[in-house]
Structures are given as structure tokens and as C-alpha cells.
Design a protein that fits this description.
Elements (H helix, E strand, L loop, with lengths): L1 E6 L9 H13 L4 E7 L2 H13 L2 E6 L7 H11 L6 H6 L2 H13 L4 E4 L15 E5 L4 H11 L3 H22 L4 E4 L2 H11 L4 E3 L17 E8 L5 H21 L4 E5 L5 H4 L7 E5 L5 H6 E6 L9 H8 L4 E4 L15 E3 L2 H12 L2 H18 L2 H20 L1
Parallel strand pairs: 1-2, 1-4, 2-3, 4-5, 5-6, 6-7, 8-9, 8-11, 9-10, 11-12, 12-13
Helix pairs in contact: 1-15, 6-7, 9-13, 12-14
């Protein structure tokens, strides 16, 4: 089949959770189907990435029109969006040049499937009929904004979050019903699509991990080093760092002075970089390989308070046999068992207590790591997940052709 994918960027290099999922599934999909990939791009930055995608059988059609994600212009657009009907993510990613390129492609080529790799790109498919349309949802976007609004103390941010939540809810509901099928990353997300939007044709295709790449490594482990690995340009992860450093780490260090915290992830903003001043806090920014940092750490923390979907960062830690401690929301969507392969916390005191348990009990840390590795090997290998995806796509095609 011929598939046209719409996305915000080239899914390579693999420096975000979204790119990891997209790349690993698209790479395997390209072995069986013809894929064109329409996305925004920077000619200088993405030349190597586009070449790499071609080597795995995916033809990238770049739209050279960078999306503004920071600076004065960015914040001005957020303020203007208060008076607009569509959510900011949709307005910020929509452009006439992208729309024109998309229309030109579907007029030239007879695609069997039009595939949105992120919900805001559903806007480009809104008026199209007679095609198989698939949404690959990385999370329920409105849920992230609802949770963002709930935890905000700043009145201005609370208002912005509330408006984005309501706008995104309306946009998702109108858009999702327009798709032939939706792929959700978790059963939680699938249930929300049904409950909130009335969607029916939904299949759970969970996040995964390359179990041959993320393997246990022999390294000098620091039992008191806590690591959080995530894309630091995402507000969900920025909030997690703020929460952990301001509310959890000081109490941990009071009891265990040797405790340190390492933040690994691309593009940390200024408000995150300021934490470098705190003794025992390390912020790496982009790294070529996260595995040495994971190997060194005594435990992996996932202090997520907002967002949806499921966490690739947990699967990578599991695959390297690292003990993981998470908020309930941080491990949401994964088939984990508290006390067996992960330690979960309902509140701040529990989170602190779980950290102290792992730091003071090598046997517990080892057992959690070994059980986590078994879980991903059996259920979360990309090979297993991609096979399920391919089977479902074939079912969709057969069902519509009967």
C-alpha cells in the first residue's frame, strides 16, 4: 500500500520519545509498504536525517518552514491564540505552504492511506473523503492540558491552560470522528477516546523499546545517583523537574546527603538550566547516547504530574535492568506491577520513601531491574509491537475492500 504520513518533523535523530516511537514503527512499516513522509524541516539541520530515512525505505518530502517554539514571537502567538477558536498547537503547526504541498501530493499520487502522526495535523485532512485515514495518537492531547490546568498556581497559566484544554477537547472530538481508525498508545487513552469523543475504531499499539540496544551494561554504579531522562523542551517534563527539585530532592538530601540528581535530555530551557547552581544537580542537555548515564545511575525517577500516553523512558530503564520509581501518572498506560518491577507513589511522602528504600536495599534494586527487563522482553519489544501494527493495518485494508 501507498501511505502518506503527515508529521511535524523528520523522526531522526532519535532524541525525543515521540521520534523513538515514530521511527521504530515507520522503519518496520516501510519493509512492507511504500511510505512518503511529509513534514516540516530545516534544510541545514535535516539533510543527514532525510538521507538516513531514505536508507530505510522512507521518502521524506520536506516543507522548509520552521515551526516557532520559543522566543518573543512564540509567546506573542500564544497570547493571540486566546482570541482564536482553534488550540495553539493546531494554529502553530498549520501553514499554507504545508497545505499546498499536501494537496499537490494527493492529487499526483493515489495514496491508499493518509496517516497523521500527531493529532494537530488532523486539520489538513478535515475536508477529505474517500480515503483510509489513520491517526497515530501519542496521547490524548486534551488530557495533558486538563492536568496542566489542575496543578497550576499561577493565575495566568491556569487561564491559558483552561482555554487550551477546552479548545483541544473540541478539536480532538471533531477530528477523531473523522478517522477510519485510531492507534492509541495505552488502554487508558483508548478508553478516553471512547468516553470523551465517542470513537469506536481504536487499537492499542503500545510504546516499545529496542531490547538489543538497551541492554544491561557493566559500569561503576552510584547507588545514590537519581536520573530523569526526557526531552526537556516538553512542558510535561519541565514540570516534572520543577516538582522533583523543589519538593522532593531537598527532603531526600536531608536524609541522604550523598544523593545526586542527573537530568538528561535535549534543549533544557533557561528555567531548567538555573538548577545547575544546586549542589548535586547535573543537567547534560543533548547527549549522543543516554545508556552510559542510565548504567551509572542507582535508580530512575519518573516524577510526571501531567500528560498522557505511556513512558518510553520507563521502558528504556527496564530494558537496562534499572530500578524505576514513578508517580502513578508517570507509569500510566504500562502493564507494570507495583513492588514487582516498579515502585509507585501516590504522594510526595511515598515518593521520598520509595527512593530511600531503593537506595538502602541493593537486593530490592536488583530484583526490580531484573523483573523490568523480563517485562519489556516479553511485551514491549518493537518487533512484537510492529508485528501487531502491520496485522491491524492489513485487517483495516481487507475490511474496507470487502
Amino acid at each position: 500500500m501507498k501511505i502518506l504520513v503527515l508529521d511535524e518533523w523528520v523522526p531522526f535523530p532519535l532524541n525525543t520519545g515521540k521520534k523513538l516511537r515514530t521511527y521504530n514503527l515507520m522503519k518496520r512499516l516501510a519493509s512492507h509498504h511504500s511510505i512518503d513522509y511529509l513534514c516540516y524541516s530545516s534544510q541545514e539541520v535535516d539533510r543527514e536525517a532525510i538521507s538516513h530515512m531514505k536508507s530505510i525505505g522512507i521518502s521524506v518530502i520536506p516543507v522548509y518552514n520552521q515551526i516557532i517554539k520559543n522566543g518573543i514571537s512564540y509567546w506573542f502567538k500564544i497570547l493571540i491564540n486566546i482570541f482564536q477558536l482553534q488550540p495553539f498547537a493546531v494554529k502553530n503547526h498549520f501553514s499554507k505552504i504545508f497545505k499546498d504541498k499536501f494537496i499537490n501530493l494527493i492529487q499526483k499520487k493515489n495514496y491508499d492511506i493518509l496517516w497523521c502522526e500527531w493529532t494537530p495535523y488532523a486539520e489538513f485532512l478535515r475536508d477529505l473523503e474517500g480515503k483510509i485515514k489513520i491517526l497515530s495518537s501519542h496521547n490524548v492531547e486534551a488530557l495533558a492540558w486538563k492536568r496542566f490546568t489542575t496543578i497550576q498556581k499561577n493565575p495566568f497559566k491556569k487561564i491559558i491552560g483552561y482555554l487550551q484544554w477546552k479548545k483541544m477537547f473540541k478539536f480532538e472530538k471533531n477530528s477523531c470522528l473523522n478517522f477510519t481508525h485510531i492507534f492509541a498508545v495505552s488502554e487508558n487513552d483508548r478508553d478516553l477516546f471512547k468516553e470523551w469523543y465517542g470513537c469506536q475504531n481504536i487499537t492499542v499499539i503500545p510504546n516499545g523499546v529496542d531490547v538489543d540496544y538497551f541492554t544491561p551494561m557493566i559500569a561503576h554504579k552510584d547507588p545514590y545517583n537519581i536520573i530523569f531522562s526526557a526531552s526537556m523542551d516538553a512542558f510535561v517534563n519541565q514540570d516534572a523537574v520543577d516538582f522533583f527539585i523543589l519538593e522532593i530532592l531537598p527532603k531526600v538530601k536531608k536524609l541522604i546527603p550523598n544523593a545526586t540528581f542527573t537530568i538528561v535530555g535535549k534543549d533544557p530551557p533557561r528555567k531548567i538550566l538555573k538548577y545547575k547552581k544546586i549542589h548535586g544537580v547535573e543537567i547534560t542537555g543533548t547527549v549522543p547516547d543516554v545508556r552510559p548515564f542510565l548504567a551509572k545511575a542507582g535508580l530512575v525517577i519518573v516524577p510526571i504530574r501531567i500528560g498522557g500516553g505511556s513512558r518510553l523512558k520507563i521502558l528504556e530503564a527496564f530494558s537496562m535492568s534499572k530500578p524505576v520509581i514513578s508517580t502513578l501518572m508517570g507509569a500510566e498506560g504500562l502493564l507494570v506491577e507495583n513492588g514487582e518491577n516498579i515502585l509507585l507513589a501516590q504522594d510526595n511522602d511515598q515518593l521520598i520513601g520509595q527512593i530511600l528504600r531503593v537506595m538502602s536495599n541493593d537486593n530490592l534494586a536488583q530484583a526490580l531491574g531484573e523483573n523490568g527487563r523480563k517485562l519489556v522482553a516479553n511485551k514491549y519489544s518493537w518487533e512484537i509491537i510492529a508485528s501487531d501494527l502491520l496485522n491491524k493495518i492489513n485487517e483495516i485494508e481487507i475490511g474496507l475492500n470487502v
